[in-house]
Specification:
By secondary structure, the chain is α/β, with parallel strands linked by helices. It is 47% helix and 15% strand. It has nine helices and eight strands. Helix 1 crosses helix 9, helix 4 packs parallel to helix 5 and helix 6 packs across helix 7. One adenosine-5'-diphosphate (ADP) binds next to helix 2 and helix 3.
Length: 217
């Protein structure tokens, strides 16, 4: 299964990606996670990406496309993959078609998670992430058993630098101008399914499974 998760910052893409990747045994490829990993390790890519991420802007297409192309060549993508946070511009989407064409394959489905702007800000600002395993929590909507501590690995939870109100507002603006046009792009290719991401985490997941498997739950 070759899938894309589309949606604004805070829509719940990363949260759903973990369950989808688990159920269908496909790698979860998050370009944001790849950049954060590089920032943490002080690589040249991390330094470059950070300049844009801190401002809520997109990292240039050519940088992102190269990373994704490399990643998709890995053996673990042979049975499929789940892209989270890529593509984010029509140009990235076209480049992805080229990359997949060269690999003689194509996408199966684009799942668009729709959430109102008011909810997005609260979700992103309350998001907390485990330093050790990357699991995502929310201080209100999905809190860990013990404040600041990961349920899965006891790692320390932190708040992303770009999850503050000002930067989130900018990211939403960038989403609307650069990424939202992808909804039409994929709709015209008959690949798109749109879901209501305001529902509970488990309910959204059930609906994703329904989209991918027909009526089986
Ligand atoms: P994205 O990857 O789209 O930016 P995340 O999956 O990281 O979004 O979710 C953003 C925040 O909202 C996280 O703190 C997460 O725990 C929380 N969250 C995700 N899905 C839901 C949901 N359906 N209801 C309430 N909170 C959610
Ligand atoms: P969110 O889903 O909350 O927006 P991500 O982790 O997907 O967060 O992305 C964080 C930041 O990483 C983005 O604001 C952007 O600066 C950069 N980024 C991630 N993916 C891409 C992409 N496909 N193209 C350009 N920039 C990206
Ligand atoms: Zn953890």
């Amino acid at each position: 299964m070759r899938l894309i998760l589309l949606g604004p910052p805070g829509a719940g893409k990363g949260t759903q990606a973990v369950s989808i990747s688990d159920r269908y045994n496909i790698p979860h490829i998050s370009t944001g996670d790849i950049f954060r990993f590089n920032i943490k390790n002080n690589t040249p890519l991390g330094l470059k990406a950070k300049e844009y991420m801190d401002k809520g802007l997109l990292v240039p297409d050519e940088v992102v496309v190269e990373i994704v192309e490399d990643r998709l060549k890995n053996d673990d993508c042979k049975q499929g993959f789940l892209l989270d946070g890529f593509p984010r511009t029509v140009n990235q989407a076209k480049e992805l078609e080229n990359v997949l064409g060269k690999m003689d394959t194509e996408l199966n489905k684009v799942i668009n998670i729709q959430v109102d702007k008011k909810i997005l800000v609260e979700r992103a600002v309350g998001r907390r992430i485990c330093r050790d395993c990357g699991s995502t929590y929310h201080i209100r909507f999905n809190p860990p058993a013990e404040e600041g501590v990961c349920d899965l690995c006891s790692g320390e939870l932190y708040q992303r630098d770009d999850d503050n109100e000002k930067t989130v507002a900018k990211r939403i603006e960038v989403y609307l101008s650069e990424t939202e046009p992808l909804i039409n792009f994929y709709d015209e290719k008959c690949k798109l399914s749109t879901l209501d991401g305001a529902k509970a985490i488990s309910q959204v997941f059930d609906e994703i499974v329904e989209v991918l498997e027909g009526n089986t739950k």
